[in-house]
């Protein structure tokens, strides 16, 4: 609807097969309208066509119900929140186990002490979990509310009214605008949040709406004939996109769950860290030990009396073997690690979106990365123009500029080379060929110059006078922008463009006008784009085309240099495009147009028929030139990849680019080192060919593999195990021409075949599936939008930040989590050992050693702060971890938390618990309460000293934690007269007994630690000394 016109025609039958909102046109002033009916034949699912009748501006007349236009990402609502959270907690065995323990205290025969002994720890765990879930739900609700409350302008019978996003219905007429000068009958769309592409896309209104008068009346006339018009993807606007330029009126066709962005969203798998699985395995072992100890105690009583009740009492008595605080400590630790990552000034802008798996970063074995925009900057720079017999590089662009200038300063520039009197034949040929090539590059594209105010010149004036300083190029591909910017630098400038025409400015300032007759946009299937233009000054009709060499080789006239030069330029890391042209007579074009329009109106096999008509033109085209643009590497990509390689991480590059360009980028980025052999996997299509090629590859050792997506598909179909086995032995793998599905498949196969952790890095919407499939997904916020970073577990602004994220934060998170988990287990095993010794000495009685507040305080205020302060510990400084990435290799073997280290801590716990209990029993004099005082005080001091023994680098908060815990215990003794004799603890006898027991329990461990560091020091200690 250009220039204020509004659709008022009779029932309009539109045949479509797409999702979203249909663009009826650009507007500046709008009146009301109603009674306009559109019938859409829609494809729902697998070829299921259903009619949808939409009354424009009258959603209340709809004949069927459609989803509400609301976004709801919440897991719960007000009524289901508490039941839902509790269900999700207690569906896991160990949480249910602790609930049953607490509930058992309501049974008189099983009660071992005060109810709060079991309910308070469980309550604390649940409160922390509920608060965390509530915060996430509130944040989610506020985000949804913000989106659902966005205000839009809607056309109605009362004129333009404001409506919330949640109030939009199918059939509403919505005005979407961007404050900028719009081109007649078109607008630009930004889809970066939908598909990861930041470049603007041209969208066109329904053609019949552009022919309506400026002032429209608000009624329908029964005499108007129906209008039949084919629609394409260019007529649609989608939710989650932004109108970047122009103003449109659109009719709403889909809402809510039927939106493309919602249907494209796959639920990402819930990632559970390998560390969490290992801890779960250890807790299962502890539970087994709990059952065994309980059975042994009852067996030693010879199963006397009601022995089955005794088993349950012992299970309750030794329940501390499985620490209830372990899960809470680890979850809080993960939150601290995530906070540290976000606050690291060396990697600014890093966001942690999955705070449950930071320790996964410390055990990555395979890193799978995208190329464009991740390793490279996605900033295209024009490097090479090749005409077959002559090539122009960056150092000879002044020659091109000179040739273009000569072409337009000759007496008649219509055929500048052939009529130049002073030039030689060769000179004429070169000028003509360069001029034709530059003109073709300046015309065959989808680039639009947009003029913006620069503070001195306003927008309208800038567009009228083609101000160079105000002009910005927008296109669907950064390659195209770089090409048009290059033609501007050599003298032929694109200054204007709309839906039907294009203007070029020559070096002499003359404006050349071209009418756009047809455009055939680039698609991933066709790998080429074309345009038919008419030169207004001569009336000549020319068909220009550019595309990838693999498809253009069969379209252009025979030549002997195309394939060789394309290979040469690709080996230099350049993106190559082949440019060609074909002159058409008026009769040829009219014949083509008639067939093309007929094909576009087809209901069945429309795409195939249209492609067939276009291909009838694509024969014997004149090859003009090759262009080469370079995608520059990101900052510090080479040192980062070297760090990862030295850390024992194998890097695979998965890209959709061509083989030669991908290989060259891999070499340039030092993914493949200079002295490394490369095996380029020959293209295979059959099982036999794949078998022969795999045998050839097997004979090579320590070489990088380069394989295309097609060959990869064949190998995985017939020889999946053999191929993965060979590929995993390679120091580097490059997969080119990879689809998003293949990327995710490779990640999945690596996980299944190796059992190792994978990390996927990408920046575009096509990397989302790979990122979600990997154990750790890292999104780079690049030029392809934020979809990858939003879907990722971690988001970084540059690829180089990955080194510090893994080497420093990943390593620290894993080592700290391992130390924290083992110490919490040690703390629980110590008191359980003491209970076992106590029960054994007193005839296997199921009587608790400590009751009431003592048992709660032990795992909370008395030891919580020092134990949790282990999340601040580090073995080496971050600079040393970056300088010696080999330290990361040790973590890949899982040594910080293994069955060996677990067994060592179990033995330490049994030794210390036995020493403390037997020492207290031997040294107490008369009263039982003295045993409690001596043993409990020794236990607290032992735990504090063991934390000090474990710490490798002291932090001031660790000292505060130790002193605060000790002070809390001393201060609480005044209130614990029910369990501890206050007068006894003030005596010298108490002090020396506690001192002796504590020294005997801790001193041998300190001596062993010293001897080990002296005679068998760990790797990191050699760097810190």
TrEMBL record:
GO terms for biological process: endocytosis; phospholipid translocation; retrograde vesicle-mediated transport, Golgi to endoplasmic reticulum. Residues 790-1017 form the P-type ATPase C-terminal domain. It is an enzyme of class 7 (translocase). GO terms for molecular function: ATP binding; ATP hydrolysis activity; ATPase-coupled intramembrane lipid transporter activity; magnesium ion binding. Its EC number is 7.6.2.1. It catalyses: ATP + H2O + phospholipidSide 1 = ADP + phosphate + phospholipidSide 2. Keywords: ATP-binding, Golgi apparatus, Lipid transport, Magnesium, Membrane, Metal-binding, Nucleotide-binding, Translocase, Transmembrane, Transmembrane helix, Transport. Its main location: Golgi. GO terms for cellular component: endosome; plasma membrane; trans-Golgi network. The chain crosses the membrane at residues 78-100, 112-131, 277-301, 307-330, 824-844, 850-872, 902-922, 928-949, 956-976, 982-1008. It is a multi-pass membrane protein. ATP binds at residues 370-372, 480, 522, 546, 575, 655-657, 737, 743, 766-767. Residues 58-118 form the P-type ATPase N-terminal domain. The active site is at residue 370. Belongs to the cation transport ATPase (P-type) (TC 3.A.3) family. Type IV subfamily. This is Phospholipid-transporting ATPase. It comes from Amphiprion ocellaris (Clown anemonefish). The gene is ATP9A.
